[in-house]
Specification:
Layout (H helix, E strand, L loop, with lengths): L12 E4 L6 E6 L4 H14 L16 H7 L1
Antiparallel strand pairs: 1-2
Length: 70
């Protein structure tokens, strides 16, 4: 806590039922193609050229993003 501002953390986004606290839906999934969506959204919001993006991953869910960045 306090090391990284919450608005700089991009992961799976879940929507909760306010009455029960149960998960209602998934807003965004950060694995596989979901990572591509997050990366594209950040690139658009920050107006960053694709040539200025470096992506590092350590699992099979990162392959799609690495191919997308290349």
């Amino acid at each position: 806590e306090g090391m990284i501002p919450p608005e700089r953390i991009h992961g799976t986004q879940l929507e909760y039922n306010p009455d029960t606290g149960e998960i209602d839906s998934i807003g965004r999934v950060a694995a596989g193609y979901g990572k591509v969506v997050v990366l594209d959204a950040l690139q658009s919001a920050l107006q960053v050229s694709p040539h200025r993006i470096v992506y590092v991953g350590d699992g099979s869910s990162d392959i799609r993003v690495m191919l997308h960045v290349n």
